[in-house]
Design a protein that fits this description.
The protein is of the alpha/beta class and 447 residues long. It is 47% helix and 9% strand. It folds into four domains: 2-103, no CATH class; 117-303, P-loop containing nucleotide triphosphate hydrolases (Rossmann fold, 3-Layer(aba) Sandwich), CATH 3.40.50.300; 318-363, no CATH class; 371-446, Arc Repressor Mutant, subunit A (Orthogonal Bundle). The protein has a six-stranded parallel β-sheet, sandwiched between helices. A two-stranded antiparallel ribbon has the order 1-2. Helix 11 (262-271) links the parallel strand 6 and strand 7 (277-282). The structure holds adenosine-5'-triphosphate and magnesium ion. Adenosine-5'-triphosphate is lined by residues 130, 133-134, 136, 159, 161-167, 283, 337-338, 341.
Length: 447
């Protein structure tokens, strides 16, 4: 007898590792390993059992006597595990049904539609709530197109602190939640390492104990991989504060040692077929995402920018004066809603709400913005600091070719540009330039 397990794009060794997570397969492998042959022809995932007549290639592996004895042990083992009387004539269909339910190879919905079988479970208990949010109509339309129409598997929202990533994701989830069987919102800040995060997600997505075959399904549910869950239900997982997983004071994108395995998971979620979406919110763009995006249509990044015209509504709600000066204020603070709210408080406190009086002041006041900007600045490596300080001293945007020879070696200069861009600290539209607030902060530091 041969038991052959097949999965595309996966080496036999790796498949064996993954399969070990399944208790059924654990037991099968432990007890029947000498009789198992694992191959990888790369044409879809299924489990096949069939007999080989004595004298065929199987004899390479064991004698026909041994095969007969093992077969009867196997029937017994499978009967115990599946809760059905397994015989030679029904073994194939029982195993195949079981495995196809387990792995749910359909790229769309699970074989028995999840929504009809299991109630949607949406856990937004850790999603922040906001009093009043103005609708970012364009961004919401783009995100809905990516997630609902194009079935994107990983969507990343990047942008500086306070730009509105969490608020935008919150609005999005409100509008698309009915399309998902499972929704889970978590922040990376709550997890000390990758394993803790991954186990928590798997546990949260696992279905509640089933009344049918509880001995099997319960143990299997807890051992499924994240990808199994993303396949068997349409899940939306929102993971906020992704930058917490990355090492500060190095060029952007290197994981902290305790998050080393994250990149592999991101690659799997981006590349392997499933029906779910991972929404990452981050100050900085993950390296895998930057790479995946270039060739994978299922991975997208939205660089969240300021509120644009909606920013006036913030100033209006704060009852600031001198409306004709608002656009100047909005431009100075890059329409960043948090920055605008903070500076609005300062203007109300110190200038009786007069934007004109505040702007007549010669320097851009940072006040409560300083600790926020400091968090970003402290994450930079030395070459980025050199570059940002040089740019903070420039009056006009610079061309990439205008680097003074003594500033940095070309290689370090280009890497630093790329890194600062991925941290959303450098603008490149009309040459290299910094947002006024960033420029002010850096200049203030170096004086
Ligand atoms: N669309 C919006 N309409 C009104 N206010 C907004 C909007 N988006 C963001 N804000 C305001 O800006 C503040 C910061 O937004 P948010 O928490 O989403 O920023 P963030 O990008 O997630 O920042 P961080 O990276 O620090 O978590 C919010 O508390 C809210 O007051
Ligand atoms: Mg946030």
């Amino acid at each position: 007898m041969r038991l052959i397990a097949v999965q595309p794009d996966m080496s036999a060794d790796r498949f064996l590792n993954l399969t070990r997570r399944q208790r059924l397969c654990d037991r099968l492998f432990q007890q029947l390993l000498p009789k198992l042959l694992i191959v990888n022809p790369g044409n879809g995932f299924r489990l096949r059992i069939f007999h080989a007549s004595p004298g065929q290639s199987l004899q390479k592996y064991c004698s026909s006597d041994h095969v007969r004895k093992s077969a009867s042990q196997l029937w017994k083992l499978l009967s115990d595990l599946l809760g059905e009387d397994v015989k030679k004539k029904n073994v194939r269909s029982l195993i195949e049904n079981f495995c196809s339910n387990l792995y749910n190879k359909s790229q769309n919905r699970s074989p028995s539609p999840p929504s009809s079988k299991s109630k949607p479970r949406h856990d937004l208990s850790q999603a922040p709530e906001y009093d009043r949010l103005y609708n970012r109509t364009d961004e919401l339309a783009t995100l809905k197109q990516w997630i609902l129409t194009e079935n994107s598997r990983i969507v990343t929202l990047t942008g500086l602190s306070g730009i509105g990533k969490t608020a935008l994701a919150r609005q999005l989830v409100e509008q698309i939640q009915d399309n998902f069987d499972r929704i889970l919102w978590r922040s990376h800040r709550k997890f000390p390492n990758f394993n803790a995060l991954q186990s928590h997600i798997i546990e949260s997505l696992a279905p509640p104990p089933s009344s049918q075959n509880p001995s099997i399904t319960n143990s299997l549910n807890s051992d499924n991989s994240m990808l199994d869950h993303l396949r068997s239900h349409r899940c939306l997982i929102i993971l906020d504060d992704f930058q917490e997983t990355l090492t500060p004071r190095e060029l952007v994108g290197n994981y902290r040692p305790e998050y080393q395995n994250y990149g592999q998971l991101i690659n799997e979620i981006g590349q392997l077929p499933h029906q779910s979406c991972l929404l990452l919110l981050s100050w900085e763009q993950p390296l895998e995402i930057a790479a995946l995006e270039t060739e994978n249509p299922y991975c997208k990044t939205l660089q969240v920018s300021g509120l644009d015209k909606l920013a006036t509504q913030i100033l209006n709600a704060r009852k600031l004066k001198d409306q004709k000066k608002w656009s100047e204020l909005i431009q100075l603070y890059s329409a960043n809603p948090l920055w605008l709210n903070l500076i609005a408080s300062t203007i109300l406190d110190l200038f009786n709400g007069s934007v004109q009086e505040y702007l007549s002041y010669p320097t851009l006041f940072l006040g409560d913005l300083e600790p926020i900007l400091k968090q970003h600045y402290q994450r930079l490596c030395e070459s980025e600091k050199i570059l940002i300080q040089w740019l903070a001293n420039q009056e006009k945007p610079l061309k990439i070719t205008q680097k003074p020879p003594e500033l940095l070696a070309v290689k370090d200069f280009l890497k630093a540009i790329q890194s600062l861009t991925r941290r959303n600290l450098l603008e490149k539209s009309s040459g290299l330039t910094l947002q006024p607030v960033i420029k002010q902060y850096v200049n203030h530091l170096i004086r």
